Amino acid sequence: MHGLRKVLLAVAALALLAGVFAMYGRADFLMTLSNQIWGCF
Questions:
Q1: What percent of the chain has pLDDT over 70?
Q2: Which of 15, 36, 33 is nearest to 24 (CA)?
Q3: Residues near 24 by Cβ (< 8 Å), separated by ≥ 6?
């Protein structure tokens, strides 16, 4: 059971990283994110 849990956790982590990488590939997302962060200051 421990092996299956580690595999599922690794797959979930890789999926999350792939999603983040895909979002950073979009320039409009980066501009929106940077504008929202800059708006906090």
A1: 98
A2: 33
A3: 30
Q: Is the pLDDT of residue 3 over 80?
A: yes
Cα–Cα nearest to 18, from 8, 27, 10, 28: 10
Please state whether 26 falls in left (phi above 0), alpha (psi between -120 and 50) or beta.
beta
Extents of the domains making up the chain: 2-38
Cα radius of gyration rounded to whole Å, the chain = 16
- Closest Cα to residue 23, out of 36, 35, 32? 32
pLDDT, tens digit, 9 for 90 and up, residues 21-34: 888 888 788 888 88
pLDDT of residue 39: 93
